[in-house]
Design goal:
Elements (H helix, E strand, L loop, with lengths): L1 H28 L2 H8 L2 E6 L7 E2 L5 E2 L1 H10 L6 E6 L5 H6 L5 E2 L7 H4 L3 E2 L4 E3 L1 E6 L9 H4 L6 E4 L4 H7 L9 E2 L2 H9 L5 E5 H9 L6 E3 L6 E2 L2 E2 L2 E3 L2 E2 L4 H16 L2 H8 L14 H5 L5
Helix pairs in contact: 3-10, 3-11
Pfam families: SBP_bac_3
Keywords: Signal
Subcellular location: Periplasm
């Protein structure tokens, strides 16, 4: 009886300790980014090394629209230093959710499907897909509809925002090989393994201007129409759902930087017009829809 009583009490204490440990672990992540910025002033941010969204420049420094906007809006919140990690685009969200990075500043568009996994700050950048083709545009690609024609092989990037739109526009998955990065996709286009490569517009400009890339151009005009609507993408900074409090405070300072001309200056620095900024009525909530958190 004494042994059973001791065992019962021991099991109860062990169960309570386990519950406390789990609760402590959960609370440690709740608001973790707010505490990290407040106490350390340093965060780790993932980028995709794609100019001009977020990349490593010739001097080895981090540059780009998204890192600069992140820094300008987060500095008033106590941010002193950003440590960057460059990785494949498809690895950004998994790395964020695994707590290997604290945020994403890699030119990621807000998509309802992504909103189910992560949370976005309000958008400060608009963009869309561009089609990079062989010089002279031999397949006469000027729209998603053209890409859906028989015999057209359309390259794209893994986890790209445009994949779902292209499928909805009629492009068959068997005709859309996916590449790990822009360089491998461009190589496939120059070698004739694909007829067109879909890239974010900023990435397309970078590739076409690269002196090592020969014989390609951006298809113009190019219409991105799906179900009768022109597709426009909105980009912003990405956080974990646990860090909604920091995201909300970040949104407040981001709004100020958009109104005082800071974001406009950053866009113009990278040869983007003010029109690339979305209107105030467009928020992460309106773009995410029911998936917004």
């Amino acid at each position: 009886m004494i042994y059973k009583s001791f065992l019962s009490q021991h099991l109860k204490r062990s169960a309570c300790a386990a519950i406390f440990a789990v609760a402590a672990s959960v609370s440690a992540y709740a608001g973790a980014l707010t505490d990290k910025v407040k106490n350390d002033g340093v965060i780790v941010v993932g980028i995709n090394n794609s100019a001009p969204s977020g990349y490593v420049d010739a001097d080895g420094n981090i540059a780009g629209i998204f890192p600069e906007v992140l820094k300008s809006a987060a500095t008033p919140l106590g941010l002193k230093k950003i440590e960057f990690q460059s990785m494949d685009f498809a690895a950004l969200i998994p790395s964020l959710m695994a707590h290997r990075i604290d945020a994403i500043a890699g030119g990621m568009y807000i998509l309802p499907k992504r909103c189910e996994q992560v949370i976005f700050a309000n958008p400060f950048f608009t963009g869309g897909a561009a089609a990079v083709v062989k010089q002279g545009n031999p397949k006469a690609v000027h729209s998603y509809e053209d890409l859906a024609k028989n015999g057209v092989i359309v390259g794209n990037l893994r986890s790209a925002a445009s994949i779902g739109d292209l499928i909805a526009a009629g492009v068959k998955q068997d005709n859309m090989p996916l590449f790990q990065d822009e360089t491998s996709g461009i190589s496939a286009l120059m070698a004739g393994r694909v007829d067109a490569l879909i890239l974010p517009y900023d990435a397309a400009i970078k590739q076409v201007k690269d002196p090592n890339v020969k014989g390609v151009e951006i298809a113009a005009p190019f219409k991105r129409i799906v179900n009768g609507e022109e597709r426009v993408n909105y980009g912003s900074i990405v956080f974990r759902p646990d860090d909604a409090d920091f995201r909300d405070r970040f949104n407040e300072t981001l709004t100020k930087t958009m109104k005082d001309g800071t974001v406009q200056t950053i866009l113009e620095k990278y040869n983007y017009p003010r029109e690339m900024m979305p209107s105030e009525s467009v928020t992460a909530k309106t773009v995410c829809g029911p998936a917004y958190r």
